[in-house]
Amino acid sequence: MSVTGIICEYDPLHTGHAWLMAQARAAGASAVVCAMSGNFTQRGGFAAVDKLARAEMAVACGADLVLELPTVWAMSTAERFARGGVEVLMRTGVVTELLFGSESGDMAALTRCADCLDSEDLTAALAAAPEDGRTFAARRQQAVEALLGPADAVLLASPNNTLAVEYLRAIRRLKSPLTARTVRRTGAQHGEAPCGGFASASYLRQLLAAGETEQAAVYMPPAAADILRRQRAAGRLTDPRLCERAILARLRTMEPEDWRRLDGGGEGLYRRMYRAAHTGVTLADVLEAARTKRYPLARLRRMVLAAWLDLPEPPEELPYLRVLAANGVGRQLLRRMRDAGAPVLTKPADAAALGPAAQALMAVESRCTDLYVLARPDPAQTGPGQELRSVPVMR
Amino acid sequence: MSVTGIICEYDPLHTGHAWLMAQARAAGASAVVCAMSGNFTQRGGFAAVDKLARAEMAVACGADLVLELPTVWAMSTAERFARGGVEVLMRTGVVTELLFGSESGDMAALTRCADCLDSEDLTAALAAAPEDGRTFAARRQQAVEALLGPADAVLLASPNNTLAVEYLRAIRRLKSPLTARTVRRTGAQHGEAPCGGFASASYLRQLLAAGETEQAAVYMPPAAADILRRQRAAGRLTDPRLCERAILARLRTMEPEDWRRLDGGGEGLYRRMYRAAHTGVTLADVLEAARTKRYPLARLRRMVLAAWLDLPEPPEELPYLRVLAANGVGRQLLRRMRDAGAPVLTKPADAAALGPAAQALMAVESRCTDLYVLARPDPAQTGPGQELRSVPVMR
Questions:
Q1: Is the Cβ of A310 closer than 8 Å to some Cβ of chain B?
Q2: Nearest residue in A to B365, CA atom
Q3: How many beta-carbon pairs under 8 angstroms link A with B?
Q4: Contact yes or no for A245 and B278 at CB 8 A
Q5: Which of B249, B279, B308 sits opposite A374 (nearest CB)?
Q6: Looking at the DSSP assignment, which residues form a beta bridge with residue B66?
Q7: Given a cut of 80, is residue B196 above it in pLDDT?
Q8: Which residues of chain B have a CB within 8 Å of the CB of A278?
Q9: Beta-carbon separation of A384 and B278 below 8 A
């Protein structure tokens, strides 16, 4: 039986996302399992739609089971994000294939890139690429070009190819039995205007931030659009500006050492962040003051939110598989997973029973949600403790 | 030469405050020196008007010199507030008399209360007063009643008498040569409606919070009212609601141990605060959930702000006398103080030259101001680093 796994954010879920799930079915998958980010996303931001509503969207639009990718992996570098996602799917014991979109769609080329990045030759080629203030990603691409030529190396300039390569590397590193398959992304790219009935999630988030919910709904499957409308009516779509002063307050009380402890805080970046926090008037000022060619904005945004959330390093191993949503097929999968001894977690309050690592990670997740909800406009939706009281969406 | 000292908050400065300064002049004072709270006040709140503007009001309405009572003393119990204020005035070396308003106006009775509170008999009388959930202040009043009778003990039920008694105790404990004099407060009491042309500062703050600046100005000397209007026009009057989510975010990330380290966090209160922070939706909910007969609201408010500001214990000794405002007479006093070796600080950035304790306290004060300004409505007025760039108001 073929079960397809997808690593995703779905913030919000649009027609392109639904199309990828349909591709899995078309290729014969008997079930689709998603590993989905929680309330904070890889770009270093508040999810516009909270994780339970996004999981509900997923199940309404083609998924059978949605498991959470905890924040310590989800709001991280592409490498760590990919490793966490692959680990979630692999630890289910039931997912057989990882399916992902990529700009290239050429599995052989993506695999050559992944192999190259893991090769010993790369270290030497990287040493030869000058330290000229560019991002690490740009220098790495140059090193791959020296080894594989420009046609392969250019793949690494696109975000979904980069993630794809990290998925392949994670599968190998984790010695996962997952097979990998890619589908070429068509339609709008990240941040671009809509095209051919498809819009990127970042474009939809811009519409949501501008209050244009109905305009965003045009590019979403009807079932997902309905959930979006319900969340908006309940005052549950986030407005990160509501937390701007809260984040600034935290940054202004941090010492350089607090910055250094964060992921990516080394390399002198902690000094830049400390100075920026003590000069920037707004959050945008702080990010702009800390930014250099070497440190892309998404990395700085993640650091700022990690500081606010007091996010620790991820544990060595994923301590639980947290269920966010499931339908009947998903529930059957959960039974199989439980029978095989997988650490399935439906009620967050049960984390302690899975051991101290699970309890510690759930405490972090609960703190993340306690702060996340402060970005909701309706004060009645901002109360603490929602994480531990939440239950999966069962269809 | 008689120099009168006054311990004050002036948030905002009203006609009653100006009247007390006039009383000092009428009694022959050649100068008036104020020890004034900074940006956070004894009630556990954001000052509506920032400290430099309040110091300017003071000098415009009868003071010659305004020195800062640093936040670690200012936002504290009556006892610590009084000790800090007396220490500021005493360390000037030029102030000869402490003048304060009290509901009683009877110095002999206030002195009997102060003596009683410092007597060994009190310990025994307190032990006899039952631990029945009342505040410490109420139990103490009962003990004083057992020793001095009801006529004296009832004084301790009024806030300005209580402060007066703490001033007298602080003078003795610090072996200060200051003489003490009280003037009977007439007109509106704390929190009451205006009466006889006088309104309490808390009543004026209610008007300011409701946007009724002109209504508040009626009860202020014209010079102070002008400064208030200027601050409002510049978007510098605070609206604490702008920091509510920031404070909630901090409270939600605190562990019980973080609460315990705070002043007043012992006695099991830290558990109550931790639980309240994890159940209350709004800040009012959190305070209400933690409140008991034993813990008055002002104490809980101070704890919450101290947590947000990460306020340490005060140092053993006042490390500097920070000048907030002065006129010509005040500048002469400052010269005499400097000549006598007092640690006068005009530019905050010079704190380091006064030693590590001064530098550490100024860092705390700077952090307090970095967070305080986030409660201003105009984003352009919310930038960090304002404390270290500020200069005293010189008239």
A1: yes
A2: A253
A3: 82
A4: no
A5: B249
A6: B34, B325
A7: no
A8: 370, 384-385
A9: yes
How distant, in Å, are the alpha carbons of B111, B127, B140, B167, B169 from that of B143? 16, 9, 5, 20, 17
Find where tokens 């990690």 sit: A306
Q: Which residues of A are less than 8 Å from B386 in CB distance?
A: none
Measured between alpha carbons, how far is B237 from B215 in angstroms, rounded to an integer? 15
Q: Which residue has the tokens 């590193």?
A: A173
C-beta separation of A7 from A90 below 8 A: no
Tell whether A278 is within 8 A of chain B (Cβ).
yes
Is residue B37 within 8 A of residue B374, CB to CB? The reply is no
Question: What six digits make up the tokens of A313?
Answer: 């390093």
Q: Is A371 an interface residue toward B (CB < 8 Å)?
A: yes
**Helices A51-60 and A222-233, axial angle in degrees (round to 10):** 160
How wide is the angle at C-alpha A123 spanned by C-alphas A119 and A125, nearest 5°?
Answer: 100
Which chain A residue's Cα is nearest to B377? A245
How close does chain A come to B364, measured CA to CA in Å? Answer: 10
Q: How far apart are CA B168 and CA B175, in angstroms?
A: 11
- Let me know: does B41 contact B68? Beta carbons within 8 Å: no
Q: Which two tokens stand for residue A150?
A: 């420009």
- Do residues B174 and B90 touch, judged by C-beta distance below 8 A? yes
Residue found under tokens 């009212």: B225
What residue type is assigned to position B187 of the chain? Answer: G
- Going by DSSP bridges, is the β-strand pair B31-37/B65-69 parallel, antiparallel, or unpaired? parallel
CB contact under 8 A, A245 and B242: yes
Residue B288: list chain A partners with CB under 8 A: none
Tokens at residue B275, please?
């639980």
Which residue has 């100005």 as its token pair? B217
Give the residue from chain A lying closest to B254, CA to CA: A367
pLDDT higher than 80, residue B20? yes
Sign for the CA dihedral angle at B202, B207, B211, B216 comes to negative
Q: Provide φ and ψ at A40, rounded to 5°.
A: -120, 140
Record the tokens describing residue A318, joined without a space: 């994923």
B70 prior amide bond cis, ω within 30: no
Give residue A261's pLDDT: 85
pLDDT below 70 — which residues of chain A?
187-192, 265-266
On whether any CB of chain B is under 8 Å from the CB of A113, the answer is: no
Question: pLDDT, tens digit, for every residue of B44-92?
Answer: 999 999 999 999 999 999 999 999 999 999 999 999 999 999 999 999 9
Radius of gyration of chain A (CA): 20
